[in-house]
Amino acid sequence: MGRVAAAYGVRGWIKVAPGGGVAQTLAASAQWWIGEHAYALAEARQHGRSVVAKLEGIDSREQVDEAWAALGDLDLAQDFVVTELAVHDLANGEWREVGLEVRNEQDEVLGTVKQWLSNGAQDVMEVAGSRTRLIPWASAIVKEVDLGAGRIVVDWQVDW
Predict the structure, then answer these.
(1) Is beta strand 2-8 parallel, antiparallel or unpaired with respect to 13-18?
(2) pLDDT digits (tens, 9 = 90+) for 28-69
(3) Would the pTM count as exceeding 0.70?
(4) C-beta of residue 156 within 8 angstroms of C-beta of residue 104
């Protein structure tokens, strides 16, 4: 989803370089996982091409440095993910969520939503399963969203 680029300011904020098309998703998340550590977000917002965030319980630049030192030799570009089932309320009233199971109309499991991307024309779900699929977020394809069951049903064949 992105990598921690630097401390940002002196009040415990960090600057994150997001992966392609996910800045809004990161900024709207309630919690991030960095390595094996979960961090609740007090605040986050897009800042140019980056995302700046204030993590709960980290209130100074020194605490940011200590937190990253405790992570050791992790490759943050690979170990930085948004937690499963983190609901995102976007400015236009829509939501995006990671960790939902994606099934087709034949009730075959395609995988789970790993991240959200944008191709310019529409948003796209990256679905991780037996293989990675990019499924457009369009009414012709997305047939049902059941947050209670943690499921999205799509008109998509298992061999596509």
Answers:
(1) antiparallel
(2) 777 777 766 777 889 999 898 888 999 899 999 999 888 777
(3) no
(4) yes
